[in-house]
Design a protein that fits this description.
Layout (H helix, E strand, L loop, with lengths): L1 H4 L3 E9 L5 E9 L5 H11 L2 H18 L6 E6 H4 L7 H10 L6 E6 L7 H13 L3 E7 L7 H6 L3 E4 L1 H6 L4 H17 L2 E4 L5 H9 L4 E2 L18 H7 L25 E2 L3 E3 L4 H10 L5 E5 L5 E6 H8 L4 H5 L13 E3 L4 H9 L10 E4 L5 E5 L1 H18 L9 H13 L4 E8 L2 H8 L1 H21 L4 E6 L2 E7 H12 L3 E2 L4 E2 L1 E8 L7 H16 L1 E9 L7 E7 L5
Parallel strand pairs: 2-3, 3-4, 4-5, 5-6, 6-7, 7-8, 10-11, 13-14, 21-22
Antiparallel strand pairs: 1-2, 1-8, 9-15, 11-12, 14-15, 16-18, 16-21, 17-18, 19-20, 22-23
């Protein structure tokens, strides 16, 4: 086995946060002198040393990263067969980490194909044990090959690597976009993060951003190199790609949390030291890494105890007699109690924490912790402020200027979210009967007033029913998404009101489509199926309301009468 590894070197490829543009981790990629790492592993398999060779490569990756002083989380690759093998095989990996002074929490074990050759129950058990020992888990190659879709739900990994074949297919293909959406939806329930690998073009990057993928790696962003690149950013690349909303509208719209971005969208790796570290040790870290804004001092269980702000610390130790006074003493003397926030919090909750902090600490990094209060990383306030501001601008642009209601994109996201969640829901299409005649007789100003009044009625109705979302898609056309138990009270509340345009009363037409789980596949399909239902509603006299169902020609008339025949 040693002879197989003599000529193996490593290249390191960074993973980027697409919200901040910063490097958040680095993957170690084995580079044999001749051939590919797959060839090396195939030869090891024939010799009967596959698992030993696989673990030995991971050990070498740890040591090579340490030679470069890499302080970011390190992704190492292991086959699923190796992970499912004997637990004692991993003893060298634990030894390599002790040798370089790093812990399992600094490492993400990326489990790779083939999955089918690893006994499922044993693989899940071994991954559970690795996580208990502090390792973070990643599943590689998801979406292609033999990676089972049920495995992420069972393992709940910290990271899911989206296979490059999926990334290549993304731009302009609604089916592949829907696949990524489904994976994103699963990850919202498991707490996992999706990483897109193999990003090669600006079109792929724009599609990923539109779909809400927050982590990516690929040659477009940074190619693998022998010396890890940890201080680079991709802000320029993101700016060149432009507004992700400009991606082809044939792609499926993203599933976005209605409460806004999450804290973890802006996560940076934490620079940590033991809570017993001296000021000299902190100074050494800060001097060697100018981009680090602070150090988190953690206990033996990786729970944050203190935070050292870069500027305040350097001001203290570099002043007159500062080094002599502080260098050999505990850094905690110059530290502050950490400002903590849970990984499940939203960005707006973070801003609330900052607003109640001491004035001199409003720009301090916040430490993000998991349910066991272990440090997951840090968030920089400036990143969150910028992200929330961009979200508000995006939301404002999407609002209809007349009613201040969201447009069709917001409704499309809500419909697709309910479809993916297997919910029973209804979509309604409401408009004013003979609206052009209203404008022609009463004037367009009166028509605008009527639309504003109708928009207010819809907003008031939705405010009383939290499961209802309304949108104004243009002119006199409005869309409504509601749960089945909310459909009747909401619709009746709107249709029972009287509307007029400077005197003459007007009537409304509402067409509703009740969508059971699995009956529709997309917002586009819902739109197509609503069209004939709406035509039926418009054929009735007075304010009308009709209900249809996918797969059925039957239309139920809840309001409105037939037009009288003219003799």
């Amino acid at each position: 086995m040693p002879a197989l590894l003599d000529d193996v070197r490593f290249a390191f490829q960074p993973l980027f946060n697409l919200h901040t543009g910063a490097v958040v981790a680095v993957e170690a990629l084995a580079r044999p002198h001749d051939g590919h790492v797959r060839d090396l592993l195939r030869e090891a398999f024939r010799a009967g040393y596959l698992a030993d060779t696989d673990v030995a490569l991971a050990c070498r990756a740890v040591r090579h990263a340490a030679e470069h002083g890499l302080g970011l989380p390190l992704h190492v690759n292991l086959l699923a067969m190796t992970v499912a093998d004997r637990p004692e095989l991993f003893a060298p990996l634990y030894g390599a980490l002790r040798e370089v002074g790093r812990g399992p929490s600094d490492v993400v074990v990326e489990v790779g194909a083939p999955y089918s050759r690893a006994p499922r129950r044993r693989l899940v058990e071994r991954l559970r044990r690795l996580r208990e020992d502090g390792f973070r888990i990643g599943l590689d190659g998801v979406g292609e090959g033999d990676s089972p879709l049920s495995l992420p739900a069972e393992v709940r990994p910290e990271v899911i690597k989206l296979d490059r074949a999926v990334v290549v297919a993304l731009p302009g293909d609604p089916a592949w976009c829907a696949l990524v959406q489904g994976l994103q939806h699963l990850c919202e329930h498991t707490g996992s993060l999706v990483v897109a690998e193999g990003v090669e073009t600006e079109g792929q990057l724009a599609a990923l951003r539109r779909l809400g993928v927050r982590l990516a790696q690929g040659n477009l962003l940074a190619s693998p190199q022998r010396r890890p690149r940890v201080d680079v950013t991709i802000s320029a690349v993101l700016a060149e790609v432009g507004d992700p909303e400009a991606v082809s509208r044939t792609a499926t719209a993203p599933l976005r949390r209605r409460r806004g971005p999450a804290v973890t969208d802006f996560l940076h790796p934490a620079t940590t030291l033991p809570d017993s570290a001296t000021s000299e040790e902190v100074l050494e870290v800060l001097a060697g890494r100018p981009t680090v804004t602070g150090v988190v001092l953690v206990d033996e269980d990786d729970r944050p105890r203190w935070t050292v702000d870069r500027n305040r610390f350097l001001l203290a130790v570099t002043g007159p007699f500062g080094h002599a006074l502080h260098a050999r003493r505990e850094a905690a003397r110059l530290a502050d109690r950490p400002k903590l926030i849970g990984a499940g919090a939203g960005a707006l909750e973070l801003l609330d924490v900052v607003a109640h902090a001491d004035r001199e600490r409003t720009n301090d990094d916040l430490v993000v912790v998991d349910d066991d209060d272990r440090c997951l990383g840090v968030v920089r306030v400036a990143d969150v402020v910028r992200g929330v501001a961009e979200l508000k601008v995006e939301q404002a642009v999407a609002l209809n200027p007349l009613t201040r209601l969201p447009g069709s994109d917001a409704v499309a996201r809500e419909v697709d979210r309910r479809i993916l969640g297997g919910e029973l829901f209804a979509v309604g299409w409401l408009d004013v009967d003979a609206f052009k005649r209203v404008n022609d007789s009463a004037g367009f100003a009166a028509g605008d007033d009527l639309i504003r009044e109708l928009g207010r009625a819809l907003s008031e109705g939705a405010a009383a029913l939290p499961g209802v979302q309304v949108g104004h898609v243009g002119g006199d056309d409005f869309l409504v998404v509601a749960g089945l138990d909310e459909l009747v009270p909401f619709s009746a509340g709107v249709l029972d009101r009287s509307f007029a345009a400077e005197g003459p009363a007007v009537t409304l037409s509402l067409a509703s489509l009740i969508c059971a789980a699995g009956s529709v596949g997309s917002y586009r399909e819902v739109s197509r199926l609503l069209a004939p239902v709406k035509e039926h509603a418009k054929s009735l006299r007075g304010t009308s309301w009709v209900v249809g169902r996918p797969g059925s020609d039957q239309v139920d008339v809840l309001r409105g009468g037939p037009h009288l025949a003219v003799g």
